[in-house]
Amino acid sequence: MGRRRVELRRIEDNTSRQVCFSKRRNGLLKKAKELSVLCDVEVGLILSSAKGKLYHFASPYSIDKIIGHYRHFVNSEREVNEHHSVQGCLKDFSYPRVDCQILEIVQWCLDETNISKLSVNDLSQLESILEGTLAQTTSRKASVAHI
């Protein structure tokens, strides 16, 4: 006998609603843990029952650290608009481009006043771009040296 689809509507009976919440809460917490382990991501989950009791799950860090990370991300996104972000600077970037344009972008990103505004995501993107450019430069240097 298979499972049947449950119509999504409010359960009127308080006892049935509490039992359903308890079962689904445990399932949701299990799925959050699986997501964290399988995908190596930060997961923070906060639930508030009808009676006002709080439940939370955080992995691999504490819920406070995840909320702090979220707040920092939101604040960083507000401070740096798309035009001044690494992604905004590089959305028109396509290989091959003139070296001076690459240098201008990197110089803008590495300027002390600008680098402090970059989010962790922007810094990771910048690092990836620099590593890619370095690999291309090294490859080009090796091919020119062997000619």
Count the DSSP helices: 6
**Average pLDDT, all residues:** 77
Q: Tell me the number of structural domains.
A: 2
Task: Give a quick account of the main beta sheet: strands, pairing sense, barrel closure.
Answer: 2 strands, antiparallel
β-strand amount:
5-15%
* Multimerization status: single chain
Keywords: DNA-binding, Nucleus, Transcription, Transcription regulation
GO molecular function, one term: protein dimerization activity
Protein name: K-box region
InterPro entries: MADS-box/MEF2_TF (IPR050142), MEF2-like_N (IPR033896), TF_MADSbox (IPR002100), TF_MADSbox_sf (IPR036879)
Description:
The chain has 147 residues and is mainly alpha-helical. It folds into two domains: 14-68, Transcription factor, MADS-box (SRF-like), CATH 3.40.1810.10; 80-145. It is built from six helices and two strands. A two-stranded antiparallel sheet has the order 1-2. A hairpin with a 5-residue loop joins strand 1 (43-48) and strand 2.
